[in-house]
Structure formats: C-alpha cells, structure tokens
Amino acid sequence: MGSKAEQILQALTALLQAISGPTVLRNAALPTRIPPDGVIILRDGDPGEPEQSLGGVGGCYYQHSVEIEIIIQHGDADQRQSLFDDLLLAVAGELDADSTLGGLIYGMTYGRPAIQLEHEEGAAPLLGGVIELTLDYETASPIS
C-alpha cells in the first residue's frame, strides 16, 4: 500500500497518465529524444516539515511541494508554442477535474509556469516549463 505520500504521488502520476499523447515519467532524467507529443515529468519534491496540532493530538499536516515539468520539441516556433499550450491546458484540466486526488488530499494549488526555450545545435528547440504544485494533506504520523 505504501505511505500516504507515496499513495498521493502514485495517484498524481495516474492522473497525468490519463492525458492522451505525452509520455509521463516520474523522477526521471530528461530523455535524449522527446516524443512528438511531448514529455511530462513528475518530480516528487519536498513534503516539508509537518505541522502538528497543539498538544500533539491528531495527525500531521503537510504542504507538499511537487513539480510537473512539461517539455515539447518542435522545429516550427508556432507549432511548438501551440503544442506546449495545449499540453499545459490538458494538465490543468486533469488537475482541476480531481483536485483532491480521489480524497487523498484536501486540495492543491498551482500557477502558470515560467517558460524556457532551449536550443542545441543540430536539434529542434525545446520549450518547457515547470508547474509548482502544492498538495495539502494529513497523515497519522510523520512517517506514514
């Protein structure tokens, strides 16, 4: 079954895998070849320090920061931008459709990513961005 954090990260991975087209990876290095439909990489991030209720009664509350990296590679600038925006909207649509990950979390917050364009000589440019996502949840103890 795994810890609550692992259950949440698995549910988030499954949610991203529901998007048609891109390759979805978790904690992976950037592939040497980007598939035509792009890549989404979930980075587990940092759960931070737990907050406990006064007197130590009750669970531990987390605001777990994770990152969703989106990468598109295409030679045509307009196509690249359009594909990136479509993928960004698809990710937001999935996150908004299940903002509690099936009841595993209280909710999530995120914003639009900063966009980066990278170009290697001899290859089509990469357009990417990282969505910083904060997941709010409770566990029975700091380790569970």
From TrEMBL:
GO terms for molecular function: transferase activity. Keywords: Transferase. It comes from the Bacteria. It comes from Magnetofaba australis IT-1. This is Putative acyl-CoA transferases/carnitine dehydratase.
